[in-house]
Write a structure and sequence with these properties.
The complex is a heterodimer of chains A (399) and B (145). Chain A is mainly beta and 399 residues long. Helices cover 12% and strands 53% of the residues of chain A. Chain A has one domain: Porin, CATH 2.40.160. In chain A, the strands form two sheets. A 16-stranded antiparallel beta barrel of chain A has the order 1-3-4-5-6-7-8-9-10-11-12-13-14-15-16-18. With 145 residues, chain B is α/β, with parallel strands linked by helices. Chain B is 46% helix and 19% strand. Chain B is built from five helices and five strands, in the order αβαβααβαββ. Chain B is globular, with a radius of gyration of 20 Å. Classes of the chains: A mainly beta (399), B alpha/beta (145). Chains A and B meet through β1, β3, β4, β6 and β7 of A and α2 and α4 of B.
Amino acid sequence: MNTHCLYRIFLASLLYFSSAPTIGDELKNKFSGYARVVAGILDEADATYFGYDDNISFDQNSLIGVQGQTLFNDKLSVTGLGLLHSNSNTDSGIEWLYLSYRPTKAINIKVGQMQTPFYSLSDTLDVGYTYPWVIAPKEVYSDFVFKKFRGIDLRYSHITDDYSAHIETYYGSFNDDVFINDSKLDVEAENLMGLIGELRIDNLHLRASYHIGDVSLELPSVPEFAQSLSLSGFTNSATTLDTDDKKADFVQLSTNYESLNYFLKAEWMKIKIDSDMFADVRGYYLTYGHYFGNFTALITYGDCKAKLPSTIDEIPIGLSPQLDQLAFGYQSIMNDRADSDTESWALGLRWDFQPNMALKTELKHINSHSDDTATFNNENPAQFDNEANLLSFALEWVF
Amino acid sequence: MKVVLRYLLLITLLQSVDIFTASAFADSPQILVIVNVNNVGKLSKKQIKQIYLEGDINFPVKPINMAAGTKIRSVFNAKVIGLTESRIKAYWAQMQFTGRATPPREFENVNQLLDFMLNNPGYIAYVPADTVLPESLTIVYRLNY
């Protein structure tokens, strides 16, 4: 079924309704937005870390987003966000556009394109003003996880004098390019669904979520190679290269405690994709922050481990040059898979110098315990000791 | 000697009276939390905090704020909500950019706020204790700080 086509019709009708002059006095338009300028430099010539190298760069995470919202009445609104991103690996354009309907005050139904609510901050990962770090801990906020989806989302809130509880569920799909260490991958997720529970008691906030989906990744030239393995009778090896329509699941837990003097944040996640091509990833971070007037000092520890399934030895070596070539090809694909075992410490400072603006800086020490490919993009393995420091700055603005 | 003792006693008494009156009667700063609907009784601090963070889901009133940077707002944030100004700003940015809620309306001064409340039922606000309140507004909480 062509969901793209349906989506276009949906978009067109949204645009029509939001510009229709006949709605009358009830129609209210609101504009708001955010912007961030992020600069970073790595003290390492032989590797890059999420695009940062030993030259100062402003173009990895800087962006500006403008949100427009039209309220038709108390129950119905349409929200769209246009995003201009400085990173050429990230699409600029309409980031989200959805219709929001509130049949009661406690229920919010959204239909359209919106943020995938995987993490506690994935809704607002682009809005740097809402979190204390310059770059949200990569040990959890992996680039691999896609930011938006198309579908339907339902959120129910139960508010009492003592606590607030929210339950959210969604269903939809996603089709876009994802960048991992500068390589572009075409990712498709169908039957994407999730359940999120949030509880706030006074200043303690807890969140747990579970998400599943059928994920397909198009790896360049791998399917062709798998086919030649199959034709040569190595079907088991061919199967391990399959990345089409694989079950993926994602678990996330987080907590946040705020007081007038300090805060504590922790988040843990685990991703598993049912394919030998991908590692099982689990990561977490812990952050403690202390307020000194308009300044916040913070310290963060992060840890991420990505374990790869073991390879199989089906193809005999040394029998014929053709077989050797197949075996070599298979091993080189398997060796290209990304694993990681990373620890990091970061010290940060945030200064809320204006009501809607903040300046941040952060020094992060990243230590990789293996010559992995997921943490650092390593041009020169012999020269690189798997440790690096990233110094970053950000100017955050919400308007 | 007796005279001196009496004198000292008198001074001590006067001082204690002075302390007593200062703490109980004079200049004790207060914030009044007010609503412009009739069906809300007295509210607790917890209830007010819930309204200011979650909106009108559980109570029939929406919150309104004084402008950022005003002293009364800082005191209200610290004593009632229990969060810093920047955390509350961040919270509302998150609500706004996830389409869940919009931040409370803000007013530059008390007169503008009262004007708005007189014409738009369904709101809760906080004002200094010396504010002359129109009859249609009800005090639901008094904060001493």
